Backbone:
């Protein structure tokens, strides 16, 4: 009887989802920021106890522990990385400082970007005095134009070492096409300053860390890996030691931004920082399959942000166009989990400059001072305050009853700052705040869905996060959607998600091929170059799986390509119909796949094969399928009344509160139908069933909410 | 006045509200305005993403774009801008179509129509800016317009690149389409696409792909607005649009009213006509009078036969860039922005030239507004709650090198080099330095390409690309520095280069409150260079910046230092062309800058040791970079005493100063000295 443990460490809570044979348990503990392994072990102990075994037994029987986190970035945000030296092509030493010009706007909201007068670039992670250029040059085909001047480099190396650098980031022009100079630089560093001389001073080559075209993002991606490397590995070694001490014997596996995962030894910081939301997305894909929902919008509304991800035809194959980590553009394949500043802490304000327009967010009160109702000094009304004034939230059960909140403070803030200036009641003001934030979230869902070429009405929403179940009807309606599903394990949704994931490694490389020549009107005839890249990536995958102790023969491969019409700036990622190209029929099939995806996402008006059709990069996915389990069926406590009576809640403008039925989520029997308006309370969340909606409890205790058209 | 003339004069302001619109405003329910106005912005964003992802021109990345929703009458209500220029000018073509074609059975305005234009005389900035426009109908009623525009770096003119520096009249500038229908029933006409390809034969692939990108984006916006109208009804949409215009207008009016009344002035100079280096003047007087703002350019030099002229509405559009990026950056953008702002441009000046004038370089003329208003508005805002928005903004150079030829893949290509374009410095603020290599002044959110982007598509090899020392304006807070880039023709027999940059002789990014102006910069070329051979041979001494390139022995080649406004030059393989961008102006007295900050600038190569010593009067050991505190105090005190010795009463200074004048040979196009009044006939054929 085997087991698995899935852990997701967030800023506030560490979530655990554990399986032992057919038994399942989940729990949450406080994240221990000073030592993450402590909170993690505590979560495992709690899960073991819920499963009725000892921690040692659970760890000893676990075949796999999967771990996701968004905390890899803390070192970045706190600027706690090591002193690094930057080695690049001579004449281009400033490229990290220039950052495509408007570097100051990367990672900012549109509102912040518009305030040009206050623009500032982010503080560089490497000082200009530690950036050196080497006399060496390749061209775009990888041909050497200028040989590496080794003597000159060694002088600069001595200088960097004298300056006390503790690691090297190397990014030379066109190194992904021909890495010879980068490789030689590493050799020279290791020859001159081996481990015995300086201790471990790692060298990060861009051609290995991010073998993609465009030197700025290749450099930032490599730099962030180098910058986060030390703290991440010290954190992981702490976790590894504790788990081994507890009896765990298999490798610790980390969730990657790509939707894949690998052992910690084969994971870089930049590959893993969005692991939590990605795990949630992957879990949703699994649940979608189990429930027969092919198209899902996964939503997570927390305190400060609203995250969405998309599953189409059971696939999560959407990637961020220009991924940004903190204030740094990077180049990495990241599943598209779109985030906007809308959450319980979003602040509502009257903008008097534009005629008393009510605006909600993107500024957030965060957890400190938090919403006005927290009584921690926050004076400005937030979405959480509005939810409280509307009667949706039971103050006694907020955050599992662990945080005392004051409805009076919430009402005062809304009355003084919103209702009176607008000349409406406090409850109407609260309902307007909710409708505006719901409308914004709904509009973003709509935009993200249609930009990928899909109709949101063909999708179902999965709602998670502390505030998701409360707002889901609102943002679904605003997006023109009619069905919402809320799972009982929504509080540990990301940890559950990683438990459903296959072991997936993703390999990518920039490589330029002309699929169709716009001048000669000829299709690609010589396919060996293309196939050689595929073979090289596949060989790497086989080596990695073997190294992790997996059965290489069971690995399945799929290929995606970054493609574009000739001259275009941006690429469209397309699922290739076949891994290799055998003949011109395969080539034409590939173009047809591109044409279909391109038309759906943008417009058939934009098809332009006469400009030529090009491949810019190859992405090989190597997957080892894991046993798929059906969604868990939680036990319901025996006895207890489903109805908790009624309480006043506001649903329409101008009508004031109406008595609204309240139910206890844990004891609602399968098949129960709740018609809106109604409120369903769980340990840490409340589901608001809005007028016009009905809720059905299914056999796995999930809530299926449906908007009844015409009401 | 003709319909068009009237539109150019007044079409930027919102139409007066109709009774129907005022009534429709009453139909808005609580929350409709907030929710639906946000929705419209997201719709425009969606359109912009579609256009950017589909297009080719480097300017799609660099941000010279607009996607927007307009009212049925053609007033702007919801734009997403790469540059605020087009938020002002986009509405004139719509109003023209409505006035001239809607009732004309040979054209008409019907559902499924696709219009197109790129003519400055009809409300555009210059003909590289091409716009697609689509009417949005619901239940048979015209309810809105969708517009998508983007700069495209080729127009089929006498020189490649769209900005024709050697043009003498409009007839040298290539394809200019007045608003015309290029599609019906949601179908583009293939014959008209072919016609455009024929005009733009230096870059036919870019032309067709980008027309399609604009139209596809426009159609996406059309679909979304139509859905909105179906869901909420035409009346709600009408009321919503009018409310959006009114709310912006009222907010702008209140802010102006809160400013101290008065007239605030500034003057800058342009150092070229596009053909040759001459001195021209641009003047502004900004008057705050109660709740109205009057921006008057009277006193600006007369128009001329060169290529650097503009029209009045183009200057107004450049005013919008300053206004929307600084004092009113926090307002939703609509045509209501300009309702209480009057912009007066003297007819016959090079800011409002004759219709036959060459204007494809008009953004280089309009950009003089950036430092003009940057300083004038800063003077207004310094004593208001908007003090944090005080900033001299940018240089007026705001352009780049253009490259044309056959690339290494066999395609004809012509495009702006987006790197120097997006690399100008931002001026200093009242409490901090400017931003180094900040961006493209017209659209500062745009992106410069990577070296690997350019080298993949163009037959060039970059020798260097970095921040350029001593380009910033010095001061208590310094301006952001500019940058330099150097191209060598590589992998092609030859390539054509042009450039519409300027400020090689006279800077425009003046300092604020005692800060220095930014530096002037020459263009550099090396013809017949042997650097490629030397690189291959492992020569250690390859130039790594403009200073090194200008000082290096050109070997068998010829070193040419030239104005950065340069007509076509043909460079063969191995030849070199370097371009650079200006920094921003400084703020406050150089003697008040913290010595540590000065040394940090030296260490980071933002300024040279000589500037630290001679301008900032900082004494330090150049080897150890250690500050000599006592020496610095003494040097600064000496500098202050020297200033005191040079000081004179203002009347005395003015009397002497007004006797001075520039050399006669650079005043040919200035106008009469010193008034700049028109003093010669302009002949165009």
Residues:
């Amino acid at each position: 009887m085997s087991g698995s443990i899935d852990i997701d460490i967030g800023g506030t809570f560490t979530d655990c989802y554990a399986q032992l044979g057919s038994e399942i348990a989940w729990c949450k503990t406080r994240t221990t920021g000073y030592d993450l392994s402590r909170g993690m072990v505590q979560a495992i102990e709690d899960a073991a106890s819920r499963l009725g075994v000892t921690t040692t037994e659970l760890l000893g029987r676990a075949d796999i522990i999967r771990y996701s986190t968004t905390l890899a970035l803390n070192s970045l945000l706190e600027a706690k990385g090591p002193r690094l030296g930057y080695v690049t092509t001579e004449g281009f030493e400033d490229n990290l400082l220039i950052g495509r010009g408007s570097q100051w706007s990367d990672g900012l909201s549109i509102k912040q970007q518009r305030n040009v007068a206050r623009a500032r670039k982010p503080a560089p992670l490497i000082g200009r005095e530690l950036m050196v250029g080497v006399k060496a040059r390749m061209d775009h085909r990888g041909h050497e134009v200028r040989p590496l001047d080794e003597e000159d480099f060694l002088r600069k190396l001595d200088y960097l070492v004298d300056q006390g650098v503790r690691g090297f980031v190397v990014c030379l022009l066109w190194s992904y096409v021909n890495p010879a100079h980068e490789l030689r630089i590493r050799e020279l560093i290791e020859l001159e300053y081996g481990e015995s001389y300086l201790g471990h001073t790692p060298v990060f080559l861009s051609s290995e860390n991010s073998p993609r075209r465009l030197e700025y993002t290749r450099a930032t991606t490599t730099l962030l890996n180098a910058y986060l490397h030390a703290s991440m590995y010290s954190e992981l070694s702490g976790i590894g030691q504790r788990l081994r001490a507890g009896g765990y014997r298999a490798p610790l596996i980390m969730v990657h931004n790509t939707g894949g995962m690998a052992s910690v030894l084969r994971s870089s910081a930049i590959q893993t920082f969005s692991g939590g939301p990605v795990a949630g997305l992957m879990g949703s894909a699994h649940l979608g399959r189990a429930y027969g929902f092919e198209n899902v919008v996964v939503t997570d509304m927390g305190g400060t942000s609203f995250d969405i991800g998309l599953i189409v035809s059971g696939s999560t194959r959407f990637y961020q166009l220009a991924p940004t980590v903190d204030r740094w553009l990077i180049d990495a394949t990241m599943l598209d989990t779109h985030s906007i500043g809308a959450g319980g802490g979003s602040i509502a304000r009257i903008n008097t400059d534009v005629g008393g327009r009510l605006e909600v967010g993107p500024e957030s009160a965060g957890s400190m001072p938090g919403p006005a109702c927290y009584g921690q000094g926050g004076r400005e009304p937030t979405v959480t305050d509005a939810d409280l004034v509307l009667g949706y939230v039971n103050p006694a059960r907020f955050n599992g009853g662990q945080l005392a909140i004051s409805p009076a403070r919430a009402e005062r803030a809304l009355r003084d700052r919103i209702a009176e200036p607008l000349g409406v009641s406090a409850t109407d003001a609260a309902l307007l705040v909710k409708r505006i934030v719901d409308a914004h979230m709904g509009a973003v869902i709509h935009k993200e869905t249609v930009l990928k070429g899909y109709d949101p009405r063909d999708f179902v929403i999965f709602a998670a996060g502390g505030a998701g179940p409360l707002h889901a009807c609102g943002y679904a309606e605003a997006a023109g959607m009619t069905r919402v599903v809320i799972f009982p394990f929504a509080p540990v949704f990301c940890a559950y998600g990683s438990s459903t994931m296959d072991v997936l490694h993703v390999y990518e490389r920039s490589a330029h091929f002309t699929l169709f020549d716009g001048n000669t009107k000829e299709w690609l005839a010589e396919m060996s170059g293309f196939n050689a890249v595929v073979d090289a990536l596949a060989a790497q995958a086989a080596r990695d799986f073997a190294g992790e102790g997996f059965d290489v023969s069971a690995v399945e491969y799929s290929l995606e390509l970054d493609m574009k019409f000739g001259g275009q700036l941006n690429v469209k990622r397309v699922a290739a119909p076949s891994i290799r190209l055998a003949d011109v029929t395969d080539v034409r099939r590939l173009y047809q796949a591109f044409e279909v995806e391109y038309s759906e996402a943008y417009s058939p008006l934009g098809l332009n094969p006469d400009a030529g059709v090009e491949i810019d990069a190859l992405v090989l996915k190597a997957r080892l399928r894991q046993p798929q389990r059906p969604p868990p069926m939680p036990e319901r406590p025996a006895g207890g009344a489903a109805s908790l009576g009624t309480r006043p809640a506001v649903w329409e403008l101008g009508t004031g509160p109406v008595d609204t039925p309240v139910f206890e989520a844990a004891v609602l029997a399968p098949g129960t139908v709740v018609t809106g308006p109604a409120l369903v309370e769980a340990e840490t969340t409340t589901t608001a069933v809005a007028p016009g909606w009905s809720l059905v409890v299914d056999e796995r205790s999930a809530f299926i909410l449906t908007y009844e058209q015409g009401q | 006045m003709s319909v068009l003339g009237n539109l150019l004069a007044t079409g930027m302001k919102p139409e007066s509200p109709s009774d129907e619109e005022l009534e429709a405003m009453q139909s808005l329910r609580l929350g409709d305005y907030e929710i639906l106005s946000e929705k419209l912005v997201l719709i425009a964003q969606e359109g912009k993403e579609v256009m950017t992802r589909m297009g080719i021109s480097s300017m799609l990345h660099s941000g010279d774009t607009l996607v927007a929703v307009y009212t049925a009458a053609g007033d702007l209500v919801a734009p997403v801008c790469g540059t605020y220029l087009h938020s002002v000018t986009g509405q004139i073509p719509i109003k023209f179509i409505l006035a001239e074609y809607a009732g004309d059975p040979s054209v008409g305005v019907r559902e499924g129509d696709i219009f197109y234009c790129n003519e400055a005389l009809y409300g555009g900035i210059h003909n590289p800016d091409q716009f697609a426009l689509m009417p949005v109908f619901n239940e048979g009623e015209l309810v809105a317009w969708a517009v998508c525009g983007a700069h495209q770096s080729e127009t089929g003119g006498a020189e490649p690149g769209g900005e024709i520096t050697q043009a003498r009249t409009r007839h040298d500038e290539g394809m200019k389409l007045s608003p015309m229908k290029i599609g019906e029933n949601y179908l583009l006409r293939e014959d008209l696409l072919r016609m455009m390809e024929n005009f733009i034969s230096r870059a036919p692939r870019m032309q067709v792909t980008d027309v399609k990108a604009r139209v596809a984006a426009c159609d996406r916006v059309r679909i979304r607005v139509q859905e909105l109208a179906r869901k909420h009804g035409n009346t709600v949409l009408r009321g919503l649009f009018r409310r959006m215009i009114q709310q912006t207008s009222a907010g702008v009016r209140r802010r102006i009213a809160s400013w101290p009344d008065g007239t605030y002035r500034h003057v800058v100079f342009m150092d070229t006509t596009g053909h040759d280096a001459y001195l021209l003047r641009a003047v502004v007087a900004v008057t705050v009078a109660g709740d109205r703002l009057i921006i008057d350019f009277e006193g600006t030099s007369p128009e001329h036969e060169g290529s650097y002229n503009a029209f009045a509405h183009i200057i107004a559009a450049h005013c919008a860039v300053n206004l929307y990026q600084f004092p009113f950056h926090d307002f939703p953008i609509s045509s209501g922005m300009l309702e209480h702002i009057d912009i007066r441009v003297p007819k016959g000046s090079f800011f409002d030239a004759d219709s036959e004038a060459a204007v494809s370089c008009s953004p280089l003329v309009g950009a003089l507004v950036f430092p003009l208003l940057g300083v004038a508005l800063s003077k207004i805002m310094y004593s208001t709650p908007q003090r944090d928005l005080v900033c001299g903004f940018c240089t007026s150079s705001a352009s780049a090198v253009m490259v044309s030829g056959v690339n290494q893949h066999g395609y004809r290509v012509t495009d702006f080099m987006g790197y120097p374009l997006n690399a100008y410095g931002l001026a200093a603020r009242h409490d901090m330095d400017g931003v180094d290599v900040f961006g493209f002044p017209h659209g500062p959110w745009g992106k410069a390409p990577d070296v690997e982007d350019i080298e993949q598509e163009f037959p060039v090899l970059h020798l260097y690309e970095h921040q350029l020392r001593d380009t910033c304006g010095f001061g208590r807070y310094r301006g952001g520095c500019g940058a330099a880039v150097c191209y060598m023709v590589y992998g092609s027999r030859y390539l054509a280069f042009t450039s519409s940059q300027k400020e090689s002789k006279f800077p425009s990014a003046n300092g604020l409150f005692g800060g220095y102006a930014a530096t002037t910069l020459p263009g550099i070329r090396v013809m017949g260079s042997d650097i490629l051979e030397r690189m291959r041979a492992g020569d250690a001494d390859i130039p790594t910046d403009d200073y090194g390139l200008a000082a290096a022995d050109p070997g068998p080649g010829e070193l040419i230092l030239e104005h950065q406004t340069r007509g076509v030059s043909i460079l063969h393989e191995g030849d070199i062309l370097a371009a650079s961008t200006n920094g921003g102006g400084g703020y406050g007295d150089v003697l008040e800058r913290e010595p540590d900050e000065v040394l940090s600038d030296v260490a980071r190569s933002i300024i040279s040791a000589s500037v630290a010593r001679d301008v900032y009067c900082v004494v330090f050991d150049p080897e150890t970079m250690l500050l000599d505190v006592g020496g610095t105090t003494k040097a600064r005190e000496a500098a202050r005493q020297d200033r005191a010795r040079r000081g004179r009463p203002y009347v005395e200074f003015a009397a002497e100063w007004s006797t001075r004048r520039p050399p006669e040979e650079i005043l040919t196009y200035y106008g009469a000295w010193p008034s700049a009044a028109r003093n010669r006939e302009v002949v165009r054929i």
